[in-house]
Amino acid sequence: MSNKIYDILKFVAQIVLPALATFYVTIANIWSLPFGEQISGTIMAVDTLLGAVLMISSSNYKKGEK
To answer: pTM for the complete prediction?
Structure first.
């Protein structure tokens, strides 16, 4: 994985997905939109998976430097 792709995915995992999940669950409660908890829970599950994949990638990269 290139550094640019890694940096973009890290930004998405740390900023975009948590903000999106928080936004949707909040708006869903205010406006009675459907499946607020399910949609935000799914976003957070994807975020957790992405974080794990990025951590593995980072760990492998650091092992390769040594």
So the answer is: 0.87
- The 10s digit of each residue's pLDDT in 13-66 is 999 999 999 999 999 999 999 999 999 999 999 999 999 999 999 988 888 876
Q: Which DSSP string corresponds to 12-29? A: IIIIIHHHHHHHHHHHHH
| Cβ proximity of 54 and 6 under 8 Å | yes
Q: How far is it, in rounded angstroms, from Cα 37 to Cα 63?
A: 39
What sign for the dihedral angle of Cα 24, 29, 30, 32? positive
Inter-residue long-range contacts of 58-63, CB under 8 Å, 24+ positions, other chains counted: 58/6
